[in-house]
Amino acid sequence: MPLTATMVITTVRAGLRAVRVRAASQRACSFSRLRMPAFTSAFTAVATLALIACGDRARSAETTASANTSSHDPSKPMKYAKIDVANHLGFAKVSVGTGENYAEGVIDAHGAEIIPPSTEFLVNDITDAVALLQFAAKFLFVDLDQGPVDTTLFATTNGFTFAEPFRSGLALVTVGDDRFFIDANGERPLKETYEFAESFHHDRSLVYNGGKKRIIDPKGRTVARLSYDQVSPYNAIRWQVTRIKEGVYLTGLVDLDGKEVVPIIYDAFGYFQEDVNRTIVGIKGVLGYLDEVGNLAIPLQFDYAESFVKGKARVRRNGRDYFIDPNGKEVLD
């Protein structure tokens, strides 16, 4: 029997359990012995979001190690295999080990372990003072600004089916088949649930509902309605749009406001290669390459064309095969 639920964001600290945004399912759920009253909402789910920060900074290293045997013992010196570039608040992902012993964690600007490296989860993203973790088959948002995190709580904390990092102040999350946005407090300012949605970029997101496609802003306002048969991401500043007529697919591009900036004329359309800012396109078997905004960077002229690999692409023209660079200049094999 499906249950209705709302999101839970809770801050758990040693000696103090402070509920920042209270919510739960129709069944009371337990967070580290914390009972939550039941509430209901409009979407169906049995999942909760946890922003967990724990912190008894005086907790001994021995206690930490015994509580989570897969985590690094902070009382022992450790050399990380890799330290990612820290964000503007000084938080950085770190990793140790290889293969089955590979582990990820998070350190702060002073090098202190906020999330001790563990083989049990992956650190997918750090935005501001929030880390997005993948723990087994669930996704968790974790507070980093309250001191060391008790990773033993991850196993008993309900999470999202899928989640993406915060962008434009909102994170796209999935519970079952429902997709929606939450803010930093775990609330749903846009209210809507979507059949399809993508994370915001440049304050724009593409969403589907009832077969209708729209571009929205972070307030949930409709920027443009898209009447195309197919709409999909091209890159951060363009969407690929397609019309289908009598089995023929013709494709072009629209900008962030839904304005058609590349005409719907291409019957061949590849994927955008970020490393070289090029995409293979074609009309009736004649191929060329678009740039990141949709201009023809290399005119339609080839009978055959491949994607770029290490800065060059194989093409064929008038029966001759050769390689070109992203500007269309012939280069040596």
Radius of gyration: 24 Å
- Give the uncertain stretches in residue-range form: 1-72
**Tally of strands:** 30
- Strand ordering within the main sheet: 5-6-7-8
Structural class: mainly beta
Output the number of helix runs: 1
Measured between the Cα atoms of the first and last residue, the distance is 62 Å
Query: How helical, in percent, are the residues?
Result: under 10%
- What gross morphology would you assign? globular
**Biggest sheet overview:** 4 strands, antiparallel
Beta-strand content bin: 35-45%
Characterization of this structure:
By secondary structure, this protein is mainly β. Among the domains are: 9-164, no CATH class; 267-331, no CATH class. Helix content is 2%, strand content 44%. The strands form 9 sheets. Strands 5-6-7-8 form a 4-stranded antiparallel β-sheet, with no helix packed on it. It starts with 8 loop residues before the first strand and ends with a strand. Mean pLDDT is 81; it is low at 1-72.
